[in-house]
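explain this:
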Amino acid sequence: MQEILDAILSSDSSAADFAAIKLPDSYRAVTLHKDEEQMFAGLDSRDKDPRKSLHLDDVALPELGPGEALVAVMASAVNYNTVWSSIYEPVSTFGFLERYGRLSPLTKRHDLPYHVLGSDLAGVVLRTGAGVNAWKPGDEVVAHCLSVELESSDGHNDTMMDPEQRIWGFETNFGGLAQLALVKTNQLMPKPAHLTWEEAASPGLVNSTAYRQLVSRNGAGMKQGDNVLIWGASGGLGSYATQYALAGGATPICVVSNDQKAEICRAMGAEAIIDRSAEGYRFWKDENTQDPREWKRLGGRIRELTGGEDVDIVFEHPGRETFGASVYVTRKGGTIVTCASTSGYMHQYDNRYLWMSLKKIVGSHFANYREAWEANRLVAKGKIHPTLSKVYSLEQTGQAALDVHQNKHQGKVGVLCLAPSEGLGVRDAELREKHLPAINRFRDI
């Protein structure tokens, strides 16, 4: 592994040098163990501790297949799917691996008694499989997390519609929280040259998800002048939605849970901010009963901030806790676009406010390759910036996942994999200097 790292850190390593490196038989990776699927049985979600379920193991190097690449991972990041995997909710990810393993002799590699997690990476290509022409050893890359087979016609207009669409490192094995990772080469994109490895690794999943959900015609199709309500506007996903709204000429109405998070939104340039804790919003009277008066109070507060206008788009991801309010406050003909349910999957809302006001609920899930490429291109051009707030070592991934699980984080949290320290990997110092305050925005608060 040291030979791989030395080649990456060297300023004059060639493609031939990387191709000549002898690959190790095994590598270190953050894993779940199949025989521990029931370890949290009977516990509430909040009491499940990822530090107990996530392991750092030596695992065997997987076989490289056609159309695939083996990547040396310099840095990765923690997403909510890492948390869901680690607490075995809503289901164990080993079911995903078993089903994928039945698809073909090649996918059988993924059905193992351990699951290497992680849906982000920044690193260097070491090997490519048969049929790969666009990438070569030594290429510095980031990876998006869409894994598709594309053997069905359904996926050829929008690859997210492929019946065999999966999220790499969540529904497949050999993810990015490791020293090495196995990806399909149509997951690869150029690493933004002005970013460090850990900065470059952090936008992937959430940036692409926010782009499709808010900007793409497959999502809300945001336009200039739109009012956009963004739940969790300083978080890993919401922080990118806030940037896209500002960059696209829309007005973000940022909902946060404390003043520190409000300050982050102000630093990004947002002016309309609702601190839901300080203003005491309680959308549920009890476990089974929502309070429409609180929906109305939220709607009134939004109009105070927008000069009397309702929101055109609600950027939804908390799910059960907020969905009734989201449907209510959206303007007539507006759109509620949802990509997750971090507070619960069973949504309840008053359908009168949907059907009689001609509103739309749009489901959005990650992004296709083109959307992910465009989102990454905006990062590479310095139009959208990383929201990295803290970096952990590979050994500390369990703690990183716990912090995300308990909502103690800001923006995204990164994980160093092969990178020996933070701050490495910058190739365009001039562009970096131009955008350094924005790059460090989540670090400075």
